Amino acid sequence: MRIALVAMSGVRVRTAELAALGVTLPGFVRRGKVIASLPSLGLLTVAGLTPRRHELEYFEVDELEDGSEIAGFDLAGISSFTARIDDAYALADRLRAGGTRVALGGLHVSRLPGEALEHADAVVVNGAEGAWPRLLEDLESGRLQRLYEGAADRVFESGLYATPRFELLQGRAYNRFTVQTSRGCPRACELCAASLRITSRFNQKPVEKVIAEVREARRWFAEPFLELADDNSFIDRRWSRDFLRAMAREGVRWFTETDASLAGDPELCDLLAASGCKQVLIGFESPRQRDLQGMDPAGWKRLQAPRILRAVDALQSRGVSVNGCFVLGLDGQTPDVFPELLDFVQRSGLAEVQYTVLTPFPGTPLHDRLRADGRLLHEGCWDRCTLFDVNFVPRGMTVEDLEAGLRWLFQETYTLGATWRRLRSFAERQREAAAAAADIRAPLQAG
Ligand code: B12
What we know:
- By secondary structure, this protein is an alpha/beta fold.
- The chain folds into two domains: about 1-15 and about 40-150, Cobalamin-binding domain (Rossmann fold, 3-Layer(aba) Sandwich); about 175-360 and about 395-445, tm_1862 like domain (pyruvate-formate lyase- activating enzyme), CATH 3.80.30.20.
- It contains 16 helices and 14 strands.
- The strands form three sheets. It has a six-stranded parallel β-sheet with strand order 2-1-3-4-5-6, sandwiched between helices.
- The longest helix has about 30 residues, at about 415-445.
- The radius of gyration is 22 Å and the shape is globular.
- The N and C termini lie far apart (about 45 Å).
- The structure holds cobalamin.
- Cobalamin binds near residues 35, 41, 82, 229 and 231.
- Cobalamin (B12) binds next to helix 3, strand 3, strand 4 and helix 5.
């Protein structure tokens, strides 16, 4: 069969004032460009699970005029997050009208398969592992089912998992690629739409498998920057040490998402710096404990709040920059949060900062709670799930306060001067830390 794999790429913001700010503020534009240039690891994984007798082609939706380029295919597999699911459905409708069968997969449709089935011949929920090969067999033999349930557990085990097919990206201008080392996060924060919602437990890939994938990807990219497509990379400390030692030998520059707990482990921080890790993104959510009430079942994030400055320092003093993420619109927040947060960010020395709006993604406990309380503004308007558009009634301020506060924070934080000051101050620390990291790396590379 000829199969098209279509990634719903690009990042969108709906609110006009924010979209306008997005193209004028240097610090914002810079980050936007960086993140917009990632291929879809979900689809490359789907490709890996496709028997070689089938012919595959990879498309980024933003490179298409109207979808008519996807012609002569027996099947189109479309992957989308929530923010662009409406575009995915519209494309699926067009393709089906033209006679192409369509299968939809990914985080959004895994939560709402009924909605997705209105636009697809088949929907895959959970991971493609354990489902996609069956779907292809059924389609070939004329017995395509409507719903396929993929594995939600042990996804990385042989027999279920397949290495992503990075070679499909050949000839494309990506400067970054992703590799996944784990799926899920046990913290289970109320707002998080990450993959624990499609996995029944935390899944960890063996270190050798990760390194084999990094090497495979590097065959197709000249000087690549690696992003780990994880929800929280360093949950398992023994695995983390082995992984970081192995990465030090690969000589790759890389980035990942983690929680703040690794900062309390000096050996892990040293290994992180020596491993080539350039930046970690940490969802601190708020520096104020009162904002974090009920964030996660164990109250873990709340306990971390007073330790943020120490955590940032532990990592940045070793030359690993921290991208600190903060959420606005939490129930404990009143309008005084905006100046307080700005003051905190300025004192923190954070090299990068990201502010997002509390967002009720489908399938999250947050979505269900806000819905039950009648606090959702435009229910089912998924194109508002951008992390920047307000789609709920905040408790401690008005919607207008929240929107204005967010814009004000952007204007204060992402000017050329402020961005430059943050990066320059981190660059100094990075220079100071370089020698220490090299000393730790040398024996690891020799061994
Ligand atoms: C890398 C990443 C990005 C990259 C994506 C690059 C790309 N082209 O895919 C970039 C930086 C561009 C990005 C952008 C955004 N992201 Co993002 N991102 C991630 C991250 C960290 C990893 C995604 C990943 O590669 N996972 C690994 C793959 C293997 O998993 P997967 O995609 O789920 O695919 C598996 C299954 O879902 C299924 N599957 C997926 N697609 C298909 C298709 C078919 C046909 C089949 C059969 C199966 C199938 O099979 C795959 C293998 O098992 C996730 C966190 C996470 N846990 O996923 C957040 C995450 C996906 N992002 C999120 C968000 C909110 C965004 C933005 C809206 C933020 C913004 N405004 O900038 C945008 C949305 C852009 C858009 N076009 O919609 C949310 C999404 C929540 C949601 N329900 O939509 C997540 C979950 C983070 C979070 N915790 O909230 N992101």
